[in-house]
Amino acid sequence: MKTNRRQFISSLSMLAAGSAMPLSAFSFGKPEKLKVVLVGTGIRGNLFWGKRLSEHYSDILEFVGLCDINPGRLAFSKKNLGLSCPTFTDFEQMVKETAPDVVIVTTRDSNHHEFIIKGLNMGCDVISEKPLTIDEFKAQAVIDAERRSGKKLIIGFNARWVPYNTKVKELLMDNTIGEITSVDHHYYLNTDHGASYFRRWHGLRQESGTLLVHKSTHHLDRLNWWIDSDPEEVYAYGSLDHYGLSGPYRGDNCRTCPHKNECRFFWDITESEIDMRLYVDNEKHDGYIRDNCLFREEINIYDKMSLQVKYKSGAILNYSLIAYSPYEGWRVTINGTKGRIEAWVDIPYIDDLQESLGQNQEYERGSDTILVHKLWNDYEKVVVPRQGGGHGGGDPNMTDKIFRTPGVPDPYQRSAGVRDGAMSMLIGVAARKSIESGELVKIAELTDLEPRVKRLIT
Questions:
Q1: CB 3.0 to 4.6 Å from 338: which of 12, 119, 178, 418, for a disulfide?
Q2: Which residues, including other chains, have CB under 8 Å from residue 166's CB and lie 6 or more apart?
Q3: Are 63 and 37 within 8 A, CB to CB?
Q4: DSSP 3-state of 263
Q5: What's the DSSP call for residue 63?
Q6: What is the pTM of this model?
Q7: Is-contact 291 253, C-beta < 8 A?
Q8: pLDDT tens-place string over residues 156-195
């Protein structure tokens, strides 16, 4: 199904607002390709938005500009993506010269607000990587900019589009376990993926807002969507126990570290062609080191976090994130007035136990399981087939919705706009404030968004 520019832009406002309220159409009338620009040409800009859109949607859109502060990274990205568009180090110049319909923002988290606001102010719709931004002041500025501009912002929450997560949402919408009363969600980052955040700019709270914002906003948005209510109050604990100053070794970077033969966290960036070409070759332009030491003194985020959230609906969430687990995965338990739902991804002992008992043939055939346990009944297994594509099918499902079928109604309300982006990252901001102050933090005190009992007005 092809979509011309007018059809796409007419549906974009509805997409950003979910299915809550239809908004008026935009007034573009030429059936031509959508004009897209991208700012921020790191790994996410290259391998997700850049590659995916240039390879799978070239029939309906075209990149008319790339922007980054690093000219070497820009040159590599243009070649890597196979594009012929001009490149810019000045964002406003790019927008003025290329007149895009849509701006895609994949910069560092601390700069998201800057380019979202400029894009909206210059008459463009905007798609931004999560998180919306890193603090409440920047969030309010984005909220205000969208209101003023009459344009729309979409946040790339691909986790909503994973079939497994969508099935949990469907069960909840069908009132399978009644009204949600409490949720326990635990996320485990291993010593490969988890450690990687501390090598990069993510290890600095002034750039990422801590993992409570950068990483947890992914999980917290999914929880807000499942619970179907806005967060109201947050209390949290957190500390840096494993990385940073806690480490036994210290060096300038992994490549030159004198401890590379004894440090279990040594990472040889020279084995990654994309990282060498994208980052190492271009360090001379901006000084950014991709294989930084995990134990450098400047790291100021948490690697262990636990928080409790009270929702406007009355539901209570217990959430934790650890960045040095032996394995990578997550599990969630959702309790309701009629029973409970249990779901998990990549928990090895659960999968191994099911296989040893001969209870997981579905898993071996490429499916995953959700357990539904109603009061006074035996539990039931709900089998969900796996889907190919990035992030368990979430990536292609999300981009197909944005670019190919934006006007098709979605009963699961998976599309995310500025309010969704704000409510998820504000939980992280509130948790950070609670850790620092030792006090409970109210979401309503952070921006002018008033928490609702229901996430969307229906």
A1: 178
A2: 160, 412, 414
A3: yes
A4: coil
A5: E
A6: 0.92
A7: yes
A8: 999 999 999 999 999 999 999 999 999 999 999 999 999 9
First-to-final CA distance of the chain: 28
Instruction: Characterize the bridge pairing of strands 61-67 and 87-88.
Output: parallel
| One-letter identity of residue 283 | E
Q: What digits encode the pLDDT tens for the residues 413-453?
A: 999 999 999 999 999 999 999 999 999 999 999 999 999 99
Give the C-alpha distances (Å, rounded to integers) separating 103 from 3, 309, 419, 425: 18, 33, 19, 21
User: Mean pLDDT in the chain?
Assistant: 91
* Whole-number Å distance between alpha carbons of 422 and 154: 12
Q: Which two tokens stand for residue 61?
A: 């859109």
Helix (H, G, I), strand (E, B) or coil at 62: strand
Half-sphere exposure of 168 (CA within 13 A, CB side): 31
Token digits of residue 202: 């993510």
Helices assigned H by DSSP within 122-187: 136-149, 163-173
State the SS3 of 115-128. HHHHHHHCCCEEEE
CB-based contacts of 63-66 (< 8 A; 24+ apart in sequence)? 63/36, 63/37, 63/38, 64/35, 64/36, 64/37, 64/98, 64/99, 64/100, 65/37, 65/38, 65/94, 65/95, 65/97, 65/98, 65/100, 66/37, 66/38, 66/39, 66/41
- For 183, phi then psi, to 5°, come to -140, 135
Where do we find the tokens 């910069």? 107
Task: DSSP letter for 412, please.
Answer: T
Which pairs from 445-449 meet CB under 8 Å and 24+ separation? 446/136, 446/139, 447/136, 447/139, 447/140, 447/143, 447/422, 448/140, 448/143, 449/143, 449/230, 449/419, 449/422, 449/423
330 is written with which tokens? 């997550």
Instruction: List CB contacts of 374: < 8 A, sequence separation 6 or more.
Output: 176, 177, 338, 339, 380
Residues in the chain: 458
For 292, other C-beta atoms within 10 Å of its C-beta total 20
- CA distance to 136, 179, 215, 269, 392, per residue, from 389 (Å): 34, 33, 21, 25, 6
Strands across the sheet with 316-325, in order? 380-385, 367-374, 339-345, 329-336, 180-190, 316-325, 304-311, 231-239, 441-442
Q: Report which of 130, 178, 122, 220 is spatially closest to residue 341, judged by C-alpha positions.
A: 178
Alpha carbon distance 24, 306 (integer Å): 42
Q: Identify the H or E element spanning 227.
A: helix 216-227
Which pair of tokens denotes residue 139?
Answer: 């969030």
Using an 8 Å Cβ cutoff, are 419 and 451 in contact? no
